[in-house]
Amino acid sequence: MASRRASKNPHAEAEQFRRRAALGFLVAALALGGLAAWYFRLQVLQHDDFATRSEANRIRPRPVVPARGMIYDRQGRLLAENVPAFRLDVTPDKAGDTEKLLAELGQLIPLDEDEIEHFRRERKAGRGFRPITLKLRLSDEEMAAFAVNRWRFPGVEMEPYLTRHYPYGDLFAHVIGYVGRIDEKDLETLGEGGTALTHIGKTGIERSYEDLLRGKVGYEQIETNVQGRALRTVGRVPARPGSDLRLSIDAELQRAAVAAFGELEGTAVAMDPRTGEILALVSLPSYDPNLFVNGISHADYRALMDNPSRPQFNRAVLGGVAPGSTLKPFLALAGLDSGVRRPEDRTLSTGMFYLPGNSRGWGDSHRGGHGWTDARKSIADSVNTYYYQLALDMGIERIQQYLTRYGFGEPSGIDLVGESTGILPSPAWKLRQRKERWYPGDTVNISIGQGDWKVTPLQMVRATGALADDGHLRRPHLVEARRDRFDAPWSALERGEPGQISERPDNLRVVREGMEMTIHGPGGTARMMSVGAPYRMAGKTGTAQVVSRRGTGAVDPRSLPMHLRHRALFIGFAPAEDPQIAVAVAVEGGGYGGSTAAPIARKIFDAWLLGKLPDGVEPLDAAPAPASCAGAGAAAEAGCTPATDGELPLPPPPSRRTPAQAGDRNPADNNFGSWLRRQPQLQRAAAPAVDAPAARAPAPATVPAAAPAGDDGSAAGTTEPPAAQENGR
């Protein structure tokens, strides 16, 4: 049978095609609808979000670090400045393999081990998107080398910044302090706003006034291309620079104080007793704060740490010594104000003092004693026996009450961080620290500034200033004024009202007269200090012993190792009739106060009151000779210094003293000569001393130990422990 082929059904095929076409059209329509919806979502619903992201890819915010406020001395000399520099910053997320980057970059720019270690430490502790400083202070050659090869190092940027510089180096290290790199602890304090900063104040004024000096961070909006290169600035939030500070410190007097020490170690603080302004603050030895600004090397840091003299230790603020005989003026005032003593009351000094029923004695400053002694003589001749008996009569509770009023045992309040409170011995302190009761012998010990005493030079100069300023106990301060813009006027910082240490001017006068006799009296322990001085001074020497006497023989401090030698002390003010400066000097291993510390104080007085600097110290502000000094005749008429070796003569250096009164700012009216003219009774006596070259000679640097009465170390011996010893100077 023949096969039949199936016939086609065109209607069925057409229907099938229509169904397939409709299905395809539906799928295409759905796809187009979904695409349209997706585009609608991107272009309309999420427009703001993606526009912001796009703008962020084009616009990169860059923080603007404010210029740190500058620091000046009282005469406008720049003590801390900002200098331009460039650094290398690395953003780890953009840099890729950081170890490979360090290796390649190290072939182009020298990187020391300290810098690499610091980067690795910050990389582990920080976030990948946050730039990390790899190298500070690029040289010109290093900047040029990196600029040519920048394309090889993605994520590495060369950023401009201002770095701190201290023109006077170690002269103000313990006053101004220094800034250093910010660490994680600093970031916790600063918060997110501090991530743009690289440095922060670490010590001194830089730390105490960090909030004022730092300013406020600003931002710039930088347009970049696809390679991330900056094209232009499209927006800016300006940074607010830090405030400038003007200190009460005088750089000239600071240099004079350092030079006065020579090779000795110790500390000196000079203060205007009328205002509490610190005029000089010296702690020796010192160090160069510039070493710390951009990271100190291990070698330099180890050299500082291994130095047994501890250059970084601020002896004026953090240290402390037993006050020795410098305590006597204050204990004498306490005895007078408490009514236990009258100025004319006398105590017999025979050379040794014994407690009733006790065979162990305390020696006086002379083996044979000083005879009958009143309040003035007890200060001038440093008579121990007077104070042994006075302390027992007053009792430890009353002593503590009055000495606390004078500022001992508490911070002075100076505007530096970490000031020591010192130690004011008392029964409660001894019981708390040593679990021992208080004995009468302890009272005898502390009466002459020995035993468990610890006072800072700041406490000493503050209390001395109160004696000089009619009993006004002022808070010492370093910062005098601030300004928020370069062209803005200086505004003085507010200071609290002073306290009052005594309500009896007659008692203060007795103590001041005793201190004046210390220098100008026939038996004063610092009488050699007055040689050639055209003004009168008031002061008190002291010696804090480190080792005890043996038997009845005195210990010669020059025979001891340096760390066991007596600490020489001096407090005082000048001029005695119109005090303008108060000082406290402490010399480590200096021997006796009258022969070591007093001459240093004399040089500080001369520098401030006379404008006379120690030998070898040239004036900071020496100006070229004016035309009127061109000839010998003109030089004689103008008072110029005669020329030598064909050089032009120079005018005499002006006085450095700045008056206490805000409206009294004419230097010509505030030098020593002006002060002298205000003292008619002294004009005739002082004029020859001012004019005579011999009278203007500086005091001797050292005085024979046996020369001053009561300052020769020849006190009678005692069998008390070292805390009970005092040589009375």
TrEMBL record:
Protein name, as recorded: Peptidoglycan D,D-transpeptidase MrdA
HAMAP family: MrdA_transpept
EC top class named in words: hydrolase
Residue ranges of the region described as Disordered: 637-729
Keyword terms, alphabetized: Carboxypeptidase, Cell inner membrane, Cell membrane, Cell shape, Cell wall biogenesis/degradation, Glycosyltransferase, Hydrolase, Membrane, Peptidoglycan synthesis, Protease, Transferase, Transmembrane, Transmembrane helix
A biological process from GO: regulation of cell shape
Reaction(s) catalysed by this chain's protein: Preferential cleavage: (Ac)2-L-Lys-D-Ala-|-D-Ala. Also transpeptidation of peptidyl-alanyl moieties that are N-acyl substituents of D-alanine
Residue ranges, compositional bias (Low complexity): 676-719
Domain Penicillin-binding protein dimerisation residue range list: 65-233
One Gene Ontology term of the molecular function aspect: peptidoglycan L,D-transpeptidase activity
Any one annotated GO CC term: plasma membrane
Family to which this protein belongs: Belongs to the transpeptidase family. MrdA subfamily.
Function: Catalyzes cross-linking of the peptidoglycan cell wall.
